[in-house]
Here is the input.
Amino acid sequence: MTLTPFVRYSGKCAALPRADVDTDQIIPKQFLKRVERTGFGPALFHDWRSNPAFELNQPEAKDATILITGANFGCGSSREHAVWALAEYGFRAILAPSFADIFTANCCQNGVAPVRLSGDGIDELVRRCRAGNGAYRVTIDLEAQRVTDDAGFSAAFAMEPYRREMLLRGLDEIGRTLLEEPRIAAFEKTRS
Amino acid sequence: MTPRTLFDKVWDAHVVHRFPEGPALLYVDLHLVHEVTSPQAFEGLRQAGRRVRRPERTVATVDHNVPTGDRTLPLDDPIAATQLEALALNAQAFGVELFDLASPQQGIVHVIGPELGLTQPGMVVVCGDSHTSTHGAFGAFALGIGTSEVEHVLATQCLVLSKPLTMEARFTGQRSAGVTAKDLILALIGRIGTAGAAGHVLEYTGDAIAALSMEERMTVCNMSIEAGARAGMIAPDETTFAYLEGRARAPSNRDWGRSVVAWRRLPSDPGAAYDRRVELDAAAVAPQVTWGTNPGMVTDITGYVPNPADFATPAERQAVERALAYMALTPGTPLEGLPIERVFVGSCTNARIEDLRAAALVARGRQVAAGVRAMVVPGSQQVKAQGEREGLDRIFLEAGFEWRNAGCSMCLGMNADVLRRGERCASTSNRNFEGRQGAGGRTHLMSPAMAAAAAVAGRLVDVREWS
Here is the structure.
């Protein structure tokens, strides 16, 4: 699978300031029966979207491509469908104080950047996003590992070098691993 | 040599290569596959013209979306049927063994792996399912992965992974009567939170863990993911070997003896260092019941619905307020006595034979309360058959429980087994997330005995007060 490399990206933000958003909320189980990787976008946050007050239902959140959210985002079920839904809906990056482990891996496999900022940094971005009334944008520079806006916000972030490399290069991980085929074969010989 | 943990030993034995950027290429001994997270992975292989590298290390079953009612009828959900057909076609095309709906070995992937003897100490086990942590009960490093990683493992028999940190969860003392493995793990999650072990592999140690049966250990390891852990592990010992010996896919004859010798070297060395440690007094743990919308929102059955005002940060207060609104609970309400309409005894957490025996012991000679619908869904068709040999089915049926076929069922409600909006359920499953068991449904997690007692009483009760 070829992915769009994620190098330096600017986009409109939407804020969903709550912690422990689990993948059952991101894509409920009734939508997991598809055998394709597509078709999940319309079901993103399905149950929550039935509430008119839900953050992503607000006109200011329309066409946002960067989600600012709370700690432990993507916890629970391993369903990659959650990332497929976020990506198909239009999100290229998620900014949060922390992410669940499996969700992080799933993001990087699909060219969606999971960017960890401090809790204070996220709180500040949420304030700025709300004040921006649908016009708030940030730039994520994955090479420099920094999130900035045009009103003075600037915060560094860290990402596992391998994951960062995958995103920067839009890597096909299987193709890359298959280059190590002789090592895998040799390893198997030592164990049989 | 530096003393190593159980996890270090399993990790070291599986590193095929270290990438310059840090992570390892880790060899996978056992890859379990089910219908929901695999179709896109097989399709990816097909499009790239790739094969399954080690079909003999890959085992598939159907569990997530299967009906648990009459199996002689065709599926009434055409989309679910398509997914089951896709797995059958993929298994055949790629040479993967499949335990399908007609198989007497069909069941929840995390129940049948151990039951067949596929899961063994020292292995690396993966599956496109977060509750793969269950298999760590055998001293395996077992972790849930996403569908892209499923495809990667199918194609390469390896996983790219940075080495997680380690965390020891030591349970000292012995649990008291009426307190189960489920209560131990819920109490731990309540203590450290749903992200408390993120980035770490939990190793459960201590007298209270050593005293657990294999099935109880599986319950503990199963919920490692609910503490955010990458995996959970328990050192293999005589209990482990006794469970495995003679199972269909376990080593036999001379291989058995050799395997046991190797497995005995796996437990953590004295003085091995963990990155973090937490200790719990098992004797102080009471039966646990969740009150909120994640497994960390849990307390003793003798406890009360908390007040948001008592939480430290605005974010926590807001989360508790949201949870109580969803659960329709008022601060200060005792959990004991809370009326329920549904009961679910099942899931990869608590649907093995010992779980069903514990629930049957409570149900025997009693009746499910008027207005309560209670289901027992065995974890596998083999568990179901064993239950029937022991007469558990009759106990449940006479008490007014439904006795169904194996599957994930109402743990995640992908099939017809769902809560209706507003229904409150005593459940032996692992997640009380909003809508998990059905949109608008309200889940309280607890042990099988507690769930069975709730079915009879029609409300949450303290099973310790029951004879």
